[in-house]
Specification:
With 311 residues, this protein is an alpha/beta fold. Helix content is 31%, strand content 16%. The protein has a single domain, classed as Ureohydrolase domain (Arginase, Chain A, 3-Layer(aba) Sandwich).
Length: 311
Amino acid sequence: MSSFAFLSDNRFLKVDAAPGTRPYAVAGIGWDGSTTNRPGARFGPRAIRQASHMLCDGVHPLFDVTPDGLLADAGDLPLPNTSLQAMREAMTPLVDALIRQQHMAWLGGDHSITLPLLRSYRRWLGRPLAVIHFDAHCDTWEDHFGEPSGHGTWVYEAMQEGLVVDACFMQLGIRSAGVREAREYVRERGGLIFDARSLRGLESPAQLAPVLTAMRERLAAHGHPPVYLTLDIDALDPAFAPGTGTPEPGGLTTNQVFTVLEELAGLPFVGMDCVEVAPPYDHAELSSYAAARFVWTYLCGCIARGAHAGA
């Protein structure tokens, strides 16, 4: 057998592989060995790609651009699947090569993949990054139920390692149970937290304007650092995204996420990931369709701005 059976054999938007020849690319990271509840996110890349086929020619109704002809699909990274440390070690050279060639959107996989991604971007750019983090969970725990690292520790680790500009770490949708020290960690390090409760009923650009303005002003105050987007699908309420390992009622709507992605498309993004889509628990492929459209919207926003690798 040449590869694991769960790896994808289809392409996002049915684009070509075309490694290194186009300014944008997607790649899958089918790892879910760090989940704390329901596994299944290893099937996320395949499901997100399949859902993207509904986008047909891919012309975005707001940005009026399409990734067609500009986007490649690098497939799923060939990684071990029984050791977090071994997986991250194997990821590093593959990620390092890809981000130097193309503006990448990564399809997870659980959220533990974001830490090695940030390490690679920090090393490549030579400076810490701003991060926009959609999630139900703060991911700031100091350990992973007794283990040193997992999908709920990566924010804490990224800040401890100096991978991010603490004041430009911005969380949206946080609402899970957790001790105050974890819930408030980002704020106490100087970052911004817009929890799910504070965002209730705010959906249109006008309604979300104070949030969007605060985020833009925070980035401007720190010299507009490069921005990385990480989007955990469980930021959405389970009514919109039931297919995830750790669902948390009371979450964001799909339209809230779209508004933020559309209105902040002009930021200096350098890459993104969409994680924690677990198709075994999905209903009517709601989570996969949302994830595919989030990735597509991000890419189209970048294309409209002209953000390529190294931009």
